[in-house]
Design brief:
By secondary structure, the chain is of the alpha/beta class. It has 2 domains: 194 residues, 3-Layer(aba) Sandwich (Rossmann fold), CATH 3.40.50; 111 residues, UDP-galactose 4-epimerase, domain 1 (Alpha-Beta Complex). It has a 6-stranded parallel beta sheet, sandwiched between helices. A 3-stranded parallel beta sheet has the order 6-8-12. 49% of the residues are buried.
């Protein structure tokens, strides 16, 4: 039986991934951990307070609990990272490098570490961005993610560590809270639509970015981790795609359910970050290697988001 440790379980991805892994492997076999107090949605399953940069504590837990799979989700994201670049670099890189070494030493079977479309930059082709292309990230978050991809590949090639990764687009969820990313508007807009009937967006109305509903992102993660190792042709990070839309288009989708919804625009520093990212992603390699296919389009996501947020109150 697998024994799984999730580091950063109280974040936007961590909450839903913890719940999905517990459903798949049994609640007692999935240890959620975070530097923060446990998220209410995590329920009664095992939880530990762990700092992702504390190598001694992580090594002790992984050894004592006989952990076979680790998911490292702790990170400082794009918008937050630009406010304190050195802190973002230190946390993002230190947590990964230490854990790579620990996993080799402890003979952990699989390590999952997420990358991001933030690895791409202004010189990258913006439409149908290829799996392999020009990579010149313009944020410390993107720099740390691309460096991390190379370290993951290195540890696989040199030590045989089974490390797997996805380049997540912007993620949209009704369960977990956004974590300081440039695509957070696509979560905030649904909350404000229901509470206030209006929203002020920090991006311009026709700013297109790749997005994905969290249900698809969690399923993609589980499918990648269950894929046979011999099917995987990259140990850096797979491009992953589902949706691409602008603030104007998501507002139009919301108006199908809330006709009086109003949106205004007040672009801030995140606009420059967004303009350096792709508008759409080519994920043919993921579709070929392990059969990836998204299920939610924009209108289906909007209907599901609004329904769950209304129920949540």
């Amino acid at each position: 039986m697998e024994k799984i440790l999730i580091i950063g379980a109280c974040g936007q991805i961590g909450v839903e991934l913890s719940l999905a892994l517990r459903q798949a492997f049994g609640t007692s076999n999935v240890i959620a951990s975070d530097i923060r107090p446990p998220h209410p949605l995590l329920g009664e399953g095992p939880f530990m307070n762990l700092n992702a940069t504390d190598a001694t504590a992580l090594n002790e837990v992984i050894g004592r609990e006989q952990i076979s799979q680790v998911y490292l989700l702790a990170a400082v994201l794009s918008a937050t990272g630009e406010q304190n670049p050195m802190r973002a670099w230190d946390i993002n890189m230190k947590s990964l490098l230490q854990l790579l070494e620990i996993c080799v030493h402890q003979k952990v079977k699989k390590l999952y570490w997420p990358s991001s479309i933030a690895v791409f930059g202004p010189t990258t082709p913006h439409s149908d961005t290829p799996q392999q292309t020009i990579v010149e990230p313009g944020t410390v978050y993107g720099i740390s993610k691309y460096a991390g991809e190379l370290w993951c590949q290195y540890f696989h090639q040199r030590y045989g560590l089974d490390v797997r990764s996805l380049r997540y687009p912007g993620l949209i969820s009704w369960k977990g809270d956004p974590g300081g990313g440039t695509t957070d508007y696509a979560v905030e807009i649904y909350h404000d639509a229901l509470k206030q009937g209006r929203y002020t967006c920090f991006l311009k109305e026709n700013t297109y970015l790749p997005m994905m509903y969290m249900e698809d992102a969690i399923r993609a993660t589980l499918e990648l981790m269950e894929a046979p190792a011999e099917k995987l042709s990259t140990r850096m990070s797979y491009n992953l795609s589902a949706l691409s839309f602008s603030p104007k288009e998501i507002a139009d989708s919301i108006r199908k359910h809330i006709p009086g919804f109003e949106i205004s625009y007040a672009p801030d520093f995140r606009q420059q970050i967004a303009e350096g990212w792709p508008q759409s992603i080519d994920d043919r390699l993921a579709r070929h290697d392990w059969g990836w296919k998204p299920r939610f389009d924009l209108d289906a996501m909007t209907a599901d988001m609004l329904q769950h947020l209304r129920e949540k109150g």
